[in-house]
Structures are given as C-alpha cells and as structure tokens.
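In the current project phase, the collection of sequences with tokenised folds has grown. One resulting record follows, to show the layout:
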Amino acid sequence: MCDVSALDPDAVTLDVLARLQLSSRRRGCTLKLRQASRELRELLAFVGLEEVLRVETGRQPEEREQGVGVEEERELDEPSA
C-alpha cells in the first residue's frame, strides 16, 4: 500500500509509480495506491495505466457497480432471451 496523497499528478510521478509496480510484481507483490487525488486518477486513466496501477477507492469489491453494457455469458448455440 502506497499513500500518494502528497504526489503531484505528472509524468514523473507516473513513471516512478509504474516502475514501483513493475518491481513489486517481479517480487511477487502488488502495489496499491492509497488516497490518490482526482487529478492523479484521471491522469492514470488518460495514459491507460489505471488497470496496471490500482487505486484503492475505499469501496468493498461487492459494492462495485456492474459496468454498462456488461452481459452474462452464455453458450453460442443458446437462443437469445
């Protein structure tokens, strides 16, 4: 867990965080970002690193809302409902 509340949302910060995540994964760990500013979260999304650099939102996994357009899986040969 890494508290990033005092970090500036810029390219240097993203570079450091990405390198920390890579180093963590090589050691079998995962880096999670805590208290990320809205600007930092938006920058992560903009550059496509939001899936790589996971930001703790304070919400429990079961509280997550299902994304729009997500459908249940079914077999291809089943007729649609």
Observations:
- DSSP finds two helices and three strands in the chain.
